[in-house]
Amino acid sequence: xxxxxxxxxxxxxAGGSLRLSCAASGRTSRxxxxxxxxxxxxxxxxFVGAISWSGGITLYSDSVKGxxxxxxxxxxxxxxxxMNSLKPEDTAVYYCAASPRFHHxxxxxxxxxxxxxxxxxxxx
Length: 124
Known about the structure:
This protein has 124 residues and is mostly beta strands. Helix content is 0%, strand content 52%. Strands 2, 4, 5, 6, 9, 10 and 11 form a seven-stranded mixed beta sheet that branches. A four-stranded antiparallel beta sheet has the order 1-3-8-7, with no helix packed on it. Strand 4 and strand 5 form a beta hairpin. The protein starts with a strand and ends with a strand.
């Protein structure tokens, strides 16, 4: 099992930026891919972006493409989500995710391990 811990959430004005971090520990050698998901109140958890742990190839949802960037530091076992040009509709709890089966987990069923989540609130 992999343990994940997010940090970096907070309150920001529309147009601003935030960077989320996710620290992985435990059986990290089994990770194929990692990603970020988010869940707004009353909505289902949705895919934001993912990165293959070995090759570093990224994939994004259309709603964040061009504004968000995922990166990772394999040596430090850290995953990042740089969020720029934030919009009120980006407000959600953001979850770090890891998969031992998929290089780019895009569905919640493709994720084996989740972080506890960090709140991001974008004001108008």
